[in-house]
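Escalation from tier 1.

The customer reports that the assembly of two entities below gives different structure tokens on two consecutive runs. Tier 1 could not reproduce it. I'm attaching the input and our single run for tier 2 to review.
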Amino acid sequence: MSEPKGRGTAWTDERGTSEEGRRRLESAPEASGKRSRSRSAAAISWLREAALLPVLAVLIIVGSVLNSHFLTVSNITGIGQQISSLGVVVVGESLILLTGGMDLSLEATYGLAPMVAAWLIVPIAAFGNGMMLNPYLGILILLAVGVAVGFVNGLLIVKGRLNGFIVTLAMTILLAGIQEGIVKGQSPFDLPNEFSYLGAAYIGKIPVSLIVTTLIFVATGLFLRYHRTGRAIYAIGGNRAAARAAGIKVNRVRIGVYVAGSVLAAIGGWMEAGRVSSVASTQGYGEGIIFAVFAAAVIGGVSLQGGRGNMVGAASGVVLLGVVQNILDLENAPNYWIDAIDGAVILVALILARVIGGEASAE
Amino acid sequence: MSEPDIPAAPATGSSPTPPGLPAVEAAGIHKRFGSTHALRGVGLSLYPGRCLGLVGRNGAGKSTLVSILSGLVPPDAGEVSFDGRPAPSPGDVTAWRARIATVFQHSMVVPGLTVAENVFLGRQPRRGRGVSKGLGVVDWRRMREQARKITADWGFDVKADAPCGSLTVEQRQVVEITRALAAGTRCLLLDEPTAALERGAVQRLFERIRQLREGGVAIMYISHHLEEVFEICTDVAVLRDGELVLTAPMAEVSKDHLVTAMVGEKKKGHYPERAGSAAPPSDLASPGSRGRGRAGSPDLVVSSVAVASTGVLLSGVSLTVRGGERVGITGLRGSGATTLARIVAGAAAPDAGEVRFGDNVLRPGDRAGALRAGIGYIPEDRQAEGFVPLLGAAENISMTITDRISRAGFVSPKRREERTTPLARRLSLVSAGLGQPVRELSGGNQQKVTVARALASDPALIVAITPTRGVDVASKELLLAELDRITSETGASLLLASDELDDLVICDRVLVLVRGEIFTEFTEPPFDREALIAATEGLGAK
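Tier 1 run:
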């Protein structure tokens, strides 16, 4: 069992690991005024936060041994493009999980938001509603759908004090129903380039979606680490009453993360729509992506109890799922067994993350 | 240890005087928790038809004794016996419940079930006989009938079919007593049963206690309210620092006598000198006269604040804390002292009334608003409200001032360190660096983080609730001295709610709350310890 105490918050790591601190304490009893902070120690612990990196390394070795195509640039960027949309949703869910909440409806927003936009943009022949909206306006509407869903969820859960699980579950079904209903089960296609650029375009050899997702991860990571609202998110997830007593506007932040989560889910759905150049009526809920979202976050060390986890972990969770999926694809895993293998892999990953990360979930 | 003071003859005696064999007898009970010796050789007896009042200050060992008598905690040494027979083995809850029942302050009634179900919780009568009885089908009819019979026998007015969620606190207590009686118990421990009751309900409870006593039930009555003990008990026992210092029939002791026994001879008299204060108390005797007071330090005016939820009660309390003044509020649990402080800090909202700080009327229950207005807050329960365990000390301390140490919202680690390091040093916070998660710190250091968090915002008013609870003596003195010094230096006012009388040393005056009302006020430090204790019990001149 690795020591669970030394891990934990980004703040700890910034200031050095706790063993290091203990050593300092022994050498200098006046510990409160500690001065130096070793950059290398901070870097090492930053890596330790990502407990999955060794697992990833093993997987990559296995992948390259199994298939010579695995380590090619096109395959790697392919993985990147595939996991980008999932990754954006994982960022959103992680924000909500960190405050101690949860949102199942992100998968429905992931489907509905691009569906509404596509439905308004594409011609009737491509299963649009005939409005032929300007694609940029469509993108605004897509984001607005995200804001609206998140705001309603946040209000019901935070102000209405309804249970987050059941509210977002009901919301999932409702939104997925709307998604299916407005297009009568069809899948709008023929998306204009402006709209599909995010998911389909490349800059050089790198997909735009991968760049954007990476930027979102980095920006969110920095925000969580250094912005006072980011720190408030950890405080609220770690001890809501203490955060309130310290004057943090708990309700505002909690509603805020639901909105941010839904907007990110909408962006993820937009990427996916661009990648496959249509919006399937099953996108999101029909594919059950929320399971992968939770799995990636939890494998990456984001606690379901709130207050613990970071973007490095979440990102490595996403990459891990993507690499596994890719290896299975390359090896032509039997189609009917894909789901079973997927589930088993995620279970194993969870166990590994628990063993390596050392966090007991029932804490 | 025997109790020569107890009126009845020892259990083994052949004396014809009642009440004969004790229903419960505890002898030579010792209990340690780590380094604290909670009980040191306590022995007492409860007799059928009598009501023994158990009194003592916080930490005297009352709750430990209750836990041992009700079989929740085994003693380290000593014996408990019922009707002359040794007590059941420690784990056998059912056997204990058949002999002794405890009505705790916090209701042990399941709100979703009916009265009858609660009365027979875990031992419902079953249908059928033999094999079919083994199926465990509840005989609802019989259960209701039996519950009705017991309540009717004792004249209790609760309906067997009523869901317990709809009952008042008083009625829930009745349900618990009924449960005990239904189990055949003829020995009741009532642990501060009146804490959550209003006056009328208290009188009805006393009526029931008398009735039970006359019915041959042995009762132990634990209370902080001495006047209640005088009213309802036939005997009284006083615990102090884990020892039984007095047992006597009620008629033979006076109130002064009891208070002296609770406080102890050597601590009798006046407070120790003001901890670490350079200023002689006379300088501070009259409110608002402190020359050093910050000119702009606003007055706090609380007017007619009222709360009427279960458990806490405040009936139209008003008070004023002048700029720079240090006011203590104290009272027993349930007196409303802490609730009042929470309301001022914006951590709780009153049902009525207004809190004004300077020119601002504070929005009820708006902690963030109160912070903006300049009110720092040291909450009562540091585990619940004091800190975020996973975050570092510096981050916890700076939680109230992130707006001041950030640029465009981004917190500057350098400025955070500049703000928190001096505070940590000032409070002698011992940690492995300020990044260490607070949950790894000792209790005393966690409390220091909580205090530092309140001080970080340079408050014009500090609301502190039991700021020294659970910290060792050295840290306690240091925390009090720092609160004293910081308020003197900055001219900040202080509202300190505490039932630890030692905390109140740093105050210029002390208000005593009893049952949600200001009972009396002490304006001349040093305060008389005994008079304060008596006042919290609702005794002494009003």
